[in-house]
Design a protein that fits this description.
- With 127 residues, this protein is mainly β.
- The protein has a single domain, classed as Jelly Rolls (Sandwich).
- 10% of the residues lie in helices and 45% in strands.
- It is built from 3 helices and 9 strands, in the order βββααββββββα.
- The strands form 2 sheets. A 6-stranded antiparallel β-sheet has the order 1-2-3-9-4-7, with no helix packed on it. The chain has a 3-stranded antiparallel β-sheet with strand order 6-5-8, with no helix packed on it.
- The longest helix is centred in the last third of the chain and has 5 residues.
Amino acid sequence: MPSDPLTAPIKGAERREIGRVRLEVVRTGNARVKRMIYPRGWRWSVDMKPNVKTDRCTHAHVGFLVQGQIHIEYADGCVVEFAAPQVLQIDPGHDGWVVGDEPAVVIEFDFEGDTIARLGVPAQHAH
């Protein structure tokens, strides 16, 4: 039986796992295309915070949720929920977690430390 193309290894990708997230990165031009597979039960404040040692995720995320559901919560109490298939933009300063019993699979585009400026994403969440 063929493997699931949503989770099968990506040819030529750099692979690693951090905070239970399976991450594959392919460099293209000045950008990176990443596939992140968040397992069911994953939560940023539980699985990533001990690794990065910040209160909330400080990265901006722009991409496409191809499978699963994600709940995002900002310090001001604002909540955003995403369910596949859906384009997503997540501003820095969030906690987030996988909702339900299936992994969340996100295809993300970034410019490493220059993502906020290059994509025009706010540097922090605001209403």
